From TrEMBL:
UniProt keyword annotations, A-Z: Activator, Amino-acid biosynthesis, Cytoplasm, DNA-binding, Methionine biosynthesis, Repressor, Transcription, Transcription regulation
GO CC, any one term: cytoplasm
Coiled coil regions, renumbered to chain: none
Location relative to the cell: Cytoplasm
Protein name: HTH-type transcriptional regulator MetR
One MF term in the entry's GO annotations: DNA-binding transcription factor activity
Length: 307
């Protein structure tokens, strides 16, 4: 009567908190998810959660199944890993480069978990401040690039990870805090603080300012997210960063943020690999662990849209 997909659906419902978010995580429509849950409840003859409760609450039967899911799903994943290792591909190299320089906080737990399961895979991690990572990936110098700027190289595969909102960080006393959202022309008289990378790799330029032909009054560069936030808080400029990277500073009241434009700027983050790596068991497992980590740790992200 029970399928593994039912357990995964209940976990997504618990972790997402709503039917809408659970459907996104399962890559289903909300109606398809509701139908799946209703069908399961009819098979079992018992309700699994209270539909009109906020926050969402599970019944005793639902909690019993969640307990089962928390026991079974990790064991199932571990068994899959063991079978993959038996089939070969248990050793190798995973040298990663991050173009999204705010990604360390959620990527490190994924790397640590991955290392526990694949101890024979050599792991290395660096940023792309001082070199172009995509040509290095094509040459085989590195094995994976985390980027929000997918290309059209025939020899590369871009694995979607998630969508995130890029927002403008402002000092709490900044006049633009009074606005509901930021327009490109609002930045003509601002000092824009950003990472030391080419403009085409920065969301604020490629997706917001450059299409409108707008230039900020000045720019300033720093490699550290914390330094960038401190400069913003002290009124030295403004900065564009992912909303999840700024959440701790918002929670502490250090800065304020506003969306870029009426509908916001929502890039998608990708993991780029060579196509000849697609069948690597440890690479596929890393993708899954990275996704699990980011949806567990990052507020406000959304599943990547189907391509």
């Amino acid at each position: 009567m029970l399928d593994i997909k039912h357990l995964r659906t209940l976990v997504a419902l618990r972790d997402g908190g709503t039917l809408v978010e659970a459907a996104r995580r399962m890559h289903l429509t909300q109606s398809a998810l509701s139908h799946q849950l209703k069908d399961l409840e009819e098979r079992l003859g018992v309700a699994l959660f209270l539909r009109k409760s906020k926050p969402l609450r599970f019944t005793r039967a639902g909690l019993e199944l969640l307990q089962l899911a928390d026991s079974v799903l990790p064991l199932l994943r571990q068994t899959e890993r063991n079978l993959q290792k038996m089939a070969g591909g248990h050793s190798g190299r995973l040298h990663m480069v991050i173009e999204c320089h705010s990604c360390f906080d959620w990527l490190m737990p994924a790397i640590n978990s991955f290392r526990d399961h694949w101890p024979e895979v050599e792991i290395d991690l660096s940023t792309s401040f001082h070199f172009e990572p995509i040509p290095a990936l094509q040459r085989g110098d590195i094995d994976l690039v985390v980027t929000s700027d997918p290309g059209a190289q025939a020899d590369l595969h871009y694995q979607p990870l998630f969508r995130y909102q890029s927002v403008l960080a402002l000092a709490n006393q900044h006049p633009l805090v009074q606005q509901r959202c930021i327009q490109p022309t609002d930045l003509r008289e601002e000092t824009l603080i950003h990472y030391p990378v080419d403009r085409q790799r920065l969301d604020i330029f490629e997706r917001f300012l450059t299409p409108q032909g707008i230039e900020p009054k000045a720019t300033r560069q720093t490699e550290l997210t914390l330094m960038m936030v401190q400069l913003v808080a002290s009124g030295r400029g403004v900065a564009c960063l992912p909303s999840w990277a700024l959440q701790p500073y918002l929670d502490s009241g250090l800065i304020s943020t506003r969306p870029l434009g009426e509908h916001g700027v929502w890039p998608t983050l990708y993991a780029a690999i060579r196509r000849d790596q697609l069948d690597s068991p440890f690479m596929q497992d890393f993708f899954q662990q990275a996704l699990d980590s980011c949806f567990r740790h990052l507020p406000g992200i959304q599943p990547a849209l189907s391509e």
